[in-house]
Description:
Layout (H helix, E strand, L loop, with lengths): L5 E8 L3 H19 L3 E5 L4 H7 L5 H9 L2 E6 L15 H8 L4 E7 L17 E7 L12 E3 L3 E3 L6 H22 L4 E6 L5 H14 L6 E6 H10 L6 E4 L1 H14 L7 E5 L4 E5 L16 H18 L2 H19 L14 H13 L5
Parallel strand pairs: 1-2, 1-3, 3-12, 5-10, 8-9, 8-10
Antiparallel strand pairs: 4-5, 4-11, 6-7, 11-12
The structure holds adenosine-5'-triphosphate.
Amino acid sequence: MTDNAFRLAVMPGDGIGPEVMEAATAVLAVVEKRHDIGFSQHVVNGGARQYRDTGVGMTEEGFADATRADAILFGAMGLPDIRHPDGTEPAPQLDLRFRLGLYAGLRPIRAIPGVPVALASPRAAEIDFALVRESTEGLFASRGKGTLVDDSVATDTMRITRDVTERLSHFSFRLAERRGRRRGRRGVVTLVDKSNVFLSFAFMRKVFFEVAREHPDVSAAQHSVDATALDLIRHPWDFEVLVTENMFGDILSDLGAGLVGGMGFAPSADIGDEHALFQPCHGSAPDIAGKGIANPVAMILSTAMMLDWLGTRHGSESCIEAANEIEAAVDAAFASGSVRSHDIGGQDGTGAVTRAIIDKLVAGARR
Ligand code: ATP
């Protein structure tokens, strides 16, 4: 480890969280050595079991540790039988998003060669888009603030602010610029909303198109959320960058994951201006926890996203290269048929999938 090591807060969490985290840190150790990148890892405990045992899902000390880190690597938190008295669940991942201002929930949806896709069209192999889910407001702003009147009416309120919408839109346009450069074509960002019905979405749309004028190299479009759900099944390969409100993004990102092999293949990043957290889109999957069959790919690809973000932020080409190598190793492992995880009908457990990816990494897989 070098003196100027990146400080990582590692939060394994509940259920399969610690299992997939072990896989991710094994992969990280390989690229750390190969590229002479330094990481100092600080484990921060938290989650549903911690809430059950202590009454808090994450301590203030844990939060401070996460705040000090250069990046947060997060497994999964939450268990179905552990709830607050009002029926909601303790969710440190949501607390972190709100408290650290992690407004841009980046969820790449990409068909990995060799991983079965849900759609029969041969074009499904071309699926490669990014969904940006706003993650600090929208309907989730009402979390913990809903009202119940006389046990007869319950309300939650959606909140859209100019400040966050501007930052979210800039993030999405910059992302499309970068993706466009890589692919040698003009990027396009599509805002997904329900602006024909709700004032909050009409406002979001107005601000989005104002920001679009500052990014003339990228096209801006708008699509209704219902039509988007339809088109994500009819022709998902035509999407490039989708940006949307928190709740819509929560739903559409699971739909997206379903297109390309399921939750085990869906990585994510929650990015703010100062902090970022990287975690698989999946939850703690208690139905398979402890069986050694969880697919670690989503966690491993989230780790690659962390390396890419750290590399871009700190000007480290080694980190960016390491991120590309991990993605290439995942692709190579599945494309060669040398590995098939349980969630896609194979026999390979967490350890076997991790080893197959590390083998390809060591062999120098390139995209
Ligand atoms: P949350 O509400 O926390 O997002 P969830 O209740 O939607 O979680 P998940 O924990 O994501 O549910 O699990 C949904 C389904 O996907 C479960 O059947 C689970 O076993 C499966 N699953 C999730 N992650 C993986 C994985 N890494 N490998 C294999 N199967 C997985």
